[in-house]
Write a structure and sequence with these properties.
This protein has two domains: 2-155, Nucleotidyltransferase, domain 5 (2-Layer Sandwich), CATH 3.30.420.10; 158-201, Arc Repressor Mutant, subunit A, CATH 1.10.10.460. Strand 4 (98-102), helix 5 (108-119) and strand 5 form a beta-alpha-beta unit. The radius of gyration is 18 Å and the shape is globular. It has helices at residues 27-33, 43-56, 67-75, 79-93, 108-119, 134-158, 169-182, 194-199; strands at residues 2-8, 17-24, 59-65, 98-102, 122-126. Helices cover 49% and strands 15% of the residues. Helix 2 (43-56) crosses helix 6 (134-158) and helix 4 packs across helix 5 (108-119). With 208 residues, the protein is an alpha/beta fold.
């Protein structure tokens, strides 16, 4: 049994990060489906493959990491540590002999060794594993589709804020307009992101 782990939403200033694990008994089945890094798939294709991956997987689980929890780790410069902790939970929740991980650490062997020590499983951590290992591609699809669903829910509650990424003008416009109207940031925002500092310079009182 082989499993893969990947995340979606590490970089956005709005919304949760989602980390997912998928385990299968034959990666060839995933390869035959045409799984790829979720970023290289259209939304419609991702949703289709999501259903197929869930059907084939012996285990498919995810965790949602809200903005407030992300901020607490970023303040301590421990975002990779946060991912480590969540990945340990996921690995322990699925039966797999080998776990492939898309490593957030530029030294993936170091990251993988720590996961092995914590879980007792064989872990192979790689950079860009979502583009190389089918079961990690499958996990990236699950994470991305789940996050997209969460973002859709937030938009129904807060209005259209675009992609939620700092480079999106709709996102920065939403943040500026929200603060102007409400005098504070909504709880869906990661307050430790540099985007917030740049956009709201001189408005530190709203970040406490």
């Amino acid at each position: 049994m082989e499993a893969g782990i990947d995340e979606a939403g590490r970089g956005p200033v709005i919304g949760p990060m989602v980390i997912a694990i998928v385990a299968v008994d034959d990666q060839g089945k995933l390869r035959a489906l045409g799984v790829r890094d979720s970023k290289k798939l259209s939304p419609g294709r991702r949703r289709y493959l999501f259903g197929e991956v869930i059907r084939l997987a012996s285990c498919a689980k995810h965790v949602l990491v809200p903005p407030g929890e992300i901020d607490r780790y970023v303040v301590a410069n421990q975002l990779n540590e946060l991912e480590m902790e969540k990945m340990i939970e996921l690995i322990q929740s699925c039966n797999a002999d080998v776990v492939y991980v898309d490593s957030p650490d530029p030294k993936p062997e170091r990251f993988g060794n720590r996961l092995e020590a914590a879980t007792g499983r064989r872990v192979i951590a790689m950079n860009e594993a979502d583009a190389l290992i089918p079961v990690v591609s499958a996990a990236s699809i699950v994470a991305k589709v789940i996050r997209d669903g969460e973002i859709d829910k937030l938009k129904k509650q807060y209005g259209d804020f675009g992609s939620g990424y700092p480079s999106d003008p709709r996102t920065t416009s939403f943040l500026a307009s929200w603060v102007k109207e409400h005098g504070t940031l909504p709880p869906i925002v990661r307050r430790t992101w540099k985007t917030v500092d740049r956009l709201l310079g001189g408005m530190d009182k709203y970040l406490t």
